[in-house]
C-alpha cells in the first residue's frame, strides 16, 4: 500500500513522515538502517523526506514501523481524497 501510494502520488514522502516522525523512526528502525539514513543525508547535505524514503523503502517501513502508523498515513490520504467521511489528522 505504501509503495503504491507513493508511486501513484496518492501521498508524498512528506505525508509519510508526518506520521512516521523522527521519534517513530528512531524508536523502531534498527540501528544499522538508522545509520544509513543519517549517512545518506549527510552525504547529500540535507535530510529530506525524499532522501529518507530512498533509504527506508516502503518495504522497510512495513517491516519496522508499527502498522497503525502506516495506516494512519493511508487513512489521511483517503480522507483528503474524499474517500471517507472520517477526518484524520
3D structure, described in words:
The protein is an all-alpha fold. It has one domain. It is 70% helix and 0% strand. It has seven helices and no strands. α2 packs across α5 (49-55) and α2 (13-19) crosses α7 (67-80). The model has no long low-confidence stretch (mean pLDDT 90).
Q: What about the largest sheet?
A: none
Name the overall outline: globular
> Residue ranges: pLDDT <50 for 5 or more in a row?
none
Q: What is the multimeric organization of the chains shown?
A: single chain
Task: Output mean pLDDT.
Answer: 90
Radius of gyration: 13 Å
Q: What's the number of structural domains?
A: 1
User: How many DSSP-defined strands?
Assistant: 0
Q: Termini, distance in Å?
A: 19 Å
Q: Which structural class fits the helix and strand makeup?
A: mainly alpha
Helix segment tally:
7
Percent helix, as a range, is 55-70%
Strand content: under 5%
Give, in order, the helices and strands. HHHHHHH
